[in-house]
């Protein structure tokens, strides 16, 4: 359904810890997320605290869902910054979706700093019953797959 690991994410996190998010890498910061299945939907929740929903951009190309968002620093440009621990800048994440998901019907909502995506399981991937006929009794029997 969803690729569970991003081989470069851990490397990016460690590099950011060592170098800080000073723009040295000039790479977008990864977003924290949870993903779980509820019924026939894959639910993905991404933490985007302090992000203006107007800066969130979602794109799907083939089986890749790209999420980009921007959080601007609240300090004016001429301010003397004493402490800056909250990350600002561009955040991004790519999710590799399986063929079993219906990327045409993704629903997105944003509430209290959390982006929630609902991605339905494709109809062709849902379990179904197959009817068989024949045999001595001539009756029909349903077999679950």
TrEMBL record:
Transmembrane segments: none annotated. It comes from the Bacteria. InterPro entries: A-crystallin/Hsp20_dom (IPR002068), HSP20-like_chaperone (IPR008978), Small_HSP (IPR031107). Residues 24-135 form the SHSP domain. It holds the Pfam family HSP20. Coiled coil: none annotated. Belongs to the small heat shock protein (HSP20) family. This is Hsp20/alpha crystallin family protein. It comes from Streptomyces fragilis.
């Amino acid at each position: 359904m969803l690729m569970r690991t991003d081989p470069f994410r851990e490397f990016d996190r460690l590099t950011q810890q060592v170098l800080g998010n000073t723009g040295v890498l000039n790479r977008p910061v990864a977003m924290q997320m949870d993903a779980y299945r509820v019924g026939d939907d894959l639910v993905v929740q991404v933490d985007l605290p302090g992000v203006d929903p107007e800066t969130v951009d979602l794109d799907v190309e083939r089986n890749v869902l790209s999420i980009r968002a921007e959080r601007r620093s609240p300090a004016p440009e001429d301010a003397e910054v004493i402490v800056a621990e909250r990350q600002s800048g561009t955040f991004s994440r790519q999710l590799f979706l399986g063929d079993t998901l219906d990327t045409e019907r993704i629903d997105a909502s944003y509430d209290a700093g959390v982006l929630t995506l609902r991605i339905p399981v494709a109809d062709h991937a849902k379990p179904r019953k197959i009817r068989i006929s024949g045999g001595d009794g001539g009756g029909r029997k349903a077999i679950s797959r």
